[in-house]
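RESIDUES AND SHAPES:
===
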Amino acid sequence: MPTKSLSNPFDAESDLRHGGSCRHGHNGPGHCGCFEHAEANADHEPQARMATHRSDEPAMDTDAIMDRAVESAIVRAMFGHNEIDRRRFLKLLGGGTIAAALASVLPLDKVKAAAKDSLGPLEKKKLRIGFVPITCATPIIMAHPMGFYERYGLDVEVIKTAGWAVARDMSLSGEYDASHMLSPMPLAISMGAGSTSEPFIMPAVENINGQAITLHNKHKDKRDPKDWKGFRFAVPFEYSMHNFLLRYYVAEHGLDPDQDIQIRVVPPPEMVANLRAENVDGYLAPDPFNQRAVWEQVGFIHMLTKDIWDGHPCCAFACSKAFAEENPNTFGALFRAIVEATQYSSDPANRVEIAEAISPRAYLNQPVPVVQQVLTGRFADGLGNIQDVPDRIDFDPFPWHSMAVWILTQMKRWGYIEGDVNYSQIAEQVFLATECGDVMKELGFEPPEKTAKNFTIMGKVFDYTDPEGYAKSFAIGRA
């Protein structure tokens, strides 16, 4: 099956959307998105390697791939990424005419050369990238079947990983070149909190929002967190936004998360089973496992985490500092592929297509409608309502330094780190906000003008310029 993102942009018959067509005639990478075929889609195993050209075109080398990527980006931008308008216009005037007109006003050869020179030859083309099968990893996952890695000359194997401890250990051992991580993890690894210390960097956030608190159906009469004393909750990892947001939320309602409730680590794929077995009363977890609990009629969505902190970071793309320094061109290519895939994911118009791309067994192994409900924000909440929350999950690659500072304050608040903490220095060393802004500009996106700002969490303003004061400002905590 061809990768459409590298089809000829001057061909009216080509389709530049990042996906294939299923045998039923639906858009998407090689499988059907029909509701009635959802379970079959969840079991669909895509090909391990995707071709980078149409079946009637010769195979392309790395230079040709980069040339095509530049052409495709320019042509898509000309038509405002409206694929229908592009194809209609090409059919009207012809691809050759459009190509000639474009070349007369824009030196395409120089643009292509600049794109290649900006990266240089790749030190390493075959990469192993780990991911935990959750929707937060959407850009890292969908960059594989939808051709984003290939357009930068990378041969990436995305490897499904059971949980975060495994992702951390595989990254530390060098088994993974890079990995999908929870945004607190590179900070913790760099500081030696919970693991051996090794400098890690987080070039880009993967998603913002995208989590929820889900409770067992038997607790529909306990919507007030003050009634949760004695509850057992699951989170996917200690060094996770899930853990810190759950702690923040219950503490704001007067519960001590270390004394009044139990918090245990459960890998995301095991959460629904644990909820069904009543091993836990609920969880603050990544999707699709909140929506999957509703789908299986064992739980309901109590609250989306965007209602705790709208725009909070969750997952990220991370790697060791050593990998980036030893393979600067490869790192640059991977960085650009991830940023571009994240930006593509941020467009709501692409969400149905993306859901179809990442639902198969090799990736999330979920029914397509479950993933679509998460990505589109139109979902059943398990309480008899259909909610419409377009930003239930969103995708923004910019790793604000102040996000890192907030995470560090919560690590300090709950005793995960002790002593003096140079919040701003650690944030700037791990979260590569400036570098991400540069890549965003290069790819034609508009980054923020600064790297830090204040946030409001449950009505309380977080002042990033006074992190120590903030960490000590709470009635419940260990700081």
